[in-house]
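Cross-check.
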Amino acid sequence: MSKNEYSASQIQVLEGLEPVRKRPGMYIGSTDVRGLHHLVYEIVDNSIDEAMAGHADSITVTLNDDGSVGVEDNGRGIPVDPHPTTKRPALEVVLTTLHAGGKFGGDASGYKVSGGLHGVGSSVVNALSTFMRAEVYRDGKVYVQEYAIGKPQFDVKVDGKTHKRGTKIIFKPDASIFDTTEWSLDILMTRFRQQSYLTRGITLALVDARKERPEEDRKYPRLYRFHFEGGIAAYVSHLNESKEGIGKPIWFEKDQEEGFVEVAMQYTETFQEHVVSFANNIHTAEGGHHLTGFKAALTRTINAYARSSGFLKEKDENLTADDVREGLTAVISVRLKEPQFEGQTKGKLGNAEMKTAVESVVNEKLAEYLEENPSEAKDVIAKCLLAARARMAARAARDSVIRKGALEGMTLPGKLADCSNKDPSECELYIVEGDSAGGSAKQGRNREFQAILPLRGKILNVEQARLDKMLANNEIKSLIIAMGMGVGETKDLSRLRYHRIVIMTDADVDGAHIRTLLLTLFYRYFPELMSNGYLYIAQPPLYKMQKDKDVRYVFTDAEKNSILQEWGFTDEDLQGEPESEDGPPASVAEELAEEVKEQGKPKEKAKRKPQIQRYKGLGEMNPDQLWDTTMDPEHRIMLRVTLDDAEKADSIFTTLMGSEVAPRRKFIQTHAKTVKNLDI
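Predicted model, tokenized:
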């Protein structure tokens, strides 16, 4: 057969769960740490569905010593009777067949609402696990079946009697599929805490039964229980625990024909909004129609109340959507029979009818609250009016700073050394600390695709500043103009001039502070850069090590010690010989002569000690060294900044960069002993 011939024999048919193993990213998003933990979410979400249906109130997740995870609930238990079509036990069908489950039939299925819509969750977990065991407690009996890479090892059988009811799933992820199989308590606790807020009355326990735990997990107890009677109102209080709130959280709910709508919200004295949305307890990170409906109703209701109460005069323009959401923390939770999620990871809700449902509930309930609580309403309107005045001042400042020509690259800042390539997907912008490092970077860079922008000093802490004050800062102004995407109302990601924006600061305390200030700026005003993978942190080396003609650049103390061991030295051998911080290491000849003099040994037999230079700043490197170690795409190490947990990121930025001192002091005292590479 000719190699160009295309016939039916070349068509592959993947049966059963084979498609999952061939393309796991299609089903769980990725095979990194996020995809690994998504397996637990899929099983736990099934138990949550039982709880939302009123059949369960307890879920226990156990991390076992062999790397497996167990999830047990006290629900009805997966049915074990024969399926009418396949004639196989329903338990086996659910766990071995894609698009099989009890959530397609509406009320008849016993699930009025559910998050497990697609019917692929449990079977996908089974396909990506080397081992799975299902135990079902029904009718006084324990039914058991085990699987290996999705295939049953024996028929469903009875294995004893029990007074319990529910389902227990134990699975061990396939290490050949995932980049890592190490579970993180931090990631799991964040998810389970969230789920417990969303389902009032449920108790979700996390048990760590591993004998040897990762270092970062040792700070946590082995047992956590989450139970919140306050629901999403308590969730809002949790999100605002390090912020100064305005009044108490506002909470309301209503059952509509389209679905159940629940909203909790509270204004704070900060300038950033934090709105989180859920559909059937699934976090819709990309929003959807329910979030759109909330935002539209909020703007309309606040404006209507402000006018009817005389806060807005006839000549005044309406408050904008940004005005009424400044400093707002809100949680929107909807439950509906047939949610239309975009993608298996369910990042966005596509049900258009939920926009109308949420709008209707927020219009009615929020208006009632404002009318019945005039004192709190006055504080809310005052906050919104202050935001409107700041917006007008910011617009004037922005118009005077960022004109159309600047956004198109015609009046770029003078300190920017731009690259010649104009394709954003190939261009990099290095934000460099200081003119000295900027000079080295400009000389060492590849002018074709690498641009350099040196910053002088520390930029403004934007966590405590509005847009107008931020735009008055020259360093921030230069950065915004250089990026080209605008800011605030004029922001447009498609105009970004560089698809790799790299923060490159010194490896000392000041460098870390500048990096934190820049990350605060990007998180609060340009989060799109993080969510699209455009933001990076350069990793310059800590040391230059040289022994004879062998020169190494190393990035950690552990790597330094490993190389010393390779060369036949220990830290004790080098005691009393301080690491070089200024200038090049002494020549090998001088070192050798000194050792020969001290030891009285023949020249060729003297054990020459390695030279170690500690880089305190990028300015200490010459352009060639900076290129070789930090800027050359063939050899450099860079960290990509992602936004895996927006809730935690918001809390940390507020704690560390906000105006409240007490939470920051507590954070520092708690984590001081775990700081690594602290250089004072």
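The chain has a mean pLDDT of 83. The first strand starts at residue 58 and ends at 63. Passed to J.P. for a second look.
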